[in-house]
Design a protein that fits this description.
The protein is mainly α. It is built from two helices and no strands. The chain folds into two domains: 46 residues; 50 residues.
């Protein structure tokens, strides 16, 4: 009977030692988790987030684009008028030149 009692005591000591090892292992796992989480949170927050544009800024951009478009339209219209005027001047000068050539002969 003392042999069985000694075996039971040895088993109890071994179980107690195993639970201590298990507690240490669980504590190590928790420490690793918290270290990894803090490292990942630190890594995520290193870069700077760009501020998003407000509605007022978008309206300002849209107005600038509209004004630029109107300016380009007026510039195109001015070039078209200038081209037409130049064509008329060239045709009139050509006609005058041909009349001058005919009368001069």
């Amino acid at each position: 009977m003392s042999d069985a009692l000694e075996k039971a005591e040895a088993a109890a000591r071994e179980a107690a030692a195993n639970t201590d090892v298990a507690r240490i292992a669980l504590a190590a796992l928790e420490l690793a988790k918290t270290t990894q989480q803090s490292a990942s949170q630190h890594h995520q927050c290193e870069h700077q987030h760009k501020a998003r544009r407000s509605a007022g800024e978008w309206i300002g951009i849209a107005c600038a684009v509209c004004v630029g478009g109107v300016g380009i339209a007026f510039a195109s219209l001015a070039l078209a008028i200038l081209g037409g005027t130049a064509a008329i001047v060239v045709l009139v000068l050509r006609s005058m030149w041909t009349d001058y050539q005919r009368k001069g002969r």
